[in-house]
Amino acid sequence: MYQAIIVDDEKWVIKSLIATLGDQKYFEIVGEFYTGTSAYSYIREYKPDLAFIDVQISGMNGLEILQTAKEERLPTLFIVISGHAEFAYAQKALFHNAISYCLKPFSRNELLDSLLKAYRILEERNASKAPISEAPKETERIMVENKTVQAMLNYISEHFTEDISIQLLADITGITPNYASQLFKEETGNTFSNYLTNIRIQKASELLRDTDMAIFMVAGQVGYKDYFYFAKVFKKITGHTPSTYRSAYRSESAPKENVHE
């Protein structure tokens, strides 16, 4: 998760915002600030990924924070929160590089849209920094002598995009789940869950490299209904988010121009 802070001089507003964003999976709220001065000191020192900031706050007001952060080229993204719907506020905020302007009382959909925008900006920003690494090589259909385990492997190879469990494999092969799990590990040197995950991530890596399929569709194509869980697993195995993996791979594989003196 990326890190975010909230800056507002009314505690109930902060608590309301935290409650509204409680189950989202983009950002972790790591700080609450009730004055602009204390918030900006934190932003300058720790450079959180995102700050929700009220326009009218004591100390440095929201627009002053935005302007100063812009002048100092700080990387923090800003979403302005305000009880004022006046165009002038929004215009000034956006001029100073706020990525969004959300009105109180908060609309959950509006806030989530703003978070998704921030998330995408951060992902694209990170894409150019990350070298690509090799995706796991376990999609080849391995062969084992044990016919029961081979039946499991064949089924996984043909149905890895579906919901598969060790219970299902045990039912198919007519043995108990505990024995199926033990036998699978003994014959393949890997657990069932790790084997299935590696197959899915390998296939996802191929789709990210070789197609323009949207990432949420790639997740579905390899058996993940939850995009965020897919992204978490993909990063754990490859060291990259799906979007940074795609961007970095295409950047490295792009043809280089020959320069002649």
TrEMBL record:
Keywords: DNA-binding, Phosphoprotein, Transcription, Transcription regulation. Residues 3-119 form the Response regulatory domain. GO terms for biological process: phosphorelay signal transduction system. Pfam families: HTH_18, Response_reg. SMART domains: HTH_ARAC, REC. One of its GO terms (molecular function) is sequence-specific DNA binding. The keyword DNA-binding applies. This is Stage 0 sporulation protein A homolog. It comes from Candidatus Limivivens intestinipullorum.
